[in-house]
TrEMBL record:
Keywords: Methyltransferase, Transferase. This is Putative S-adenosylmethionine-dependent methyltransferase. One of its GO terms (biological process) is methylation. GO terms for molecular function: methyltransferase activity. Pfam families: Methyltransf_25 (PF13649). The keyword Nuclease does not apply. Residues 54-144 form the Methyltransferase domain. The lineage of its organism: Bacteria, Pseudomonadati, Planctomycetota, Planctomycetia, Pirellulales. The keyword Hydrolase does not apply. InterPro entries: Methyltransf_25, SAM-dependent_MTases_sf. It comes from Rubripirellula obstinata. Its EC number is 2.1.1.-. Transmembrane segments: none annotated. It comes from the Bacteria.
Length: 217
């Protein structure tokens, strides 16, 4: 069973607790950093999705895909039949969900302006990651964008997440991306014991310079 992010997952819920001071109990809110980071990455994609065709892969059970706003066409793709079935049941009114592998997309060339892969590439073997980058380049339009986020630990050791097959260092994932794309923007965010790299990559060969920002908030 692959890792699934769901609004029903306890690990992605905010928490409330009562703090008694004097005779009156105060209800306090404690934000969940993983939930905050989850919403933030789909807000990031939404900055590029207005009026264009967007593919989100792997989409899991569709919660994240459903948060992408403003696209002319929104497609979520995942290898797991149960995930796609749940995505269709929950969010089929917001996006189209199909079965597909990260190694081989069931789409023709120039099918999308944006491909998003948000903390998904660490869930597949490295050769499948290479194929994913190749397939993303193939299905994107001339000036299309690949938006990809990838987590790793500060120490460089594996995080211990049993669902993460390979966690790329910043330099490793950048080298892979630059074999097919121009990296036009980059930043990092800490989440728990992880650092998450965010890369905006352009298919266009006319981009001669990189606009790289390194933000750690």
């Amino acid at each position: 069973m692959a890792e699934r992010i769901s609004p029903d997952s306890p690990s992605f819920k905010n928490s409330w607790f009562r703090l008694r001071k004097g005779f009156i109990p105060w209800v306090s809110f404690k934000g969940n950093p993983y939930r905050k980071a989850f919403f933030r990455r789909y807000e990031w994609v939404s900055q590029y999705s207005d009026g264009v065709r967007v593919l989100d892969v792997p989409c899991g059970m569709g919660w994240g895909t459903s948060l992408i706003k403003g696209s002319s066409e929104l497609v979520g793709m995942d290898l797991a039949e149960d995930a796609i079935s749940e995505a269709q049941n929950r969010y089929g009114n917001l996006a189209r969900f199909i079965l597909g592998s990260m190694a081989s997309f069931p789409f023709e060339e120039n099918s999308f302006e944006v491909v998003a892969c948000l903390e998904g590439i660490e869930h597949v073997p490295q050769d499948v990651g290479d194929q994913f980058i190749h397939e993303s380049h193939r299905v994107l339009s001339k000036n299309g964008l690949l938006l990809i986020s990838s987590p790793h630990t500060k120490s460089g050791q594996h995080s211990g997440n049993e669902f993460h097959i390979y966690e790329y260092s910043t330099e490793e994932i950048r080298r892979k991306l630059e074999m097919k794309f121009n990296v036009i923007d980059f930043y990092q965010l800490p989440v728990g014991n992880l650092i998450v790299d965010y890369f905006t990559c352009s298919k266009s060969s006319s981009c001669d310079t990189e606009n790289i920002t390194n933000n750690q908030n």
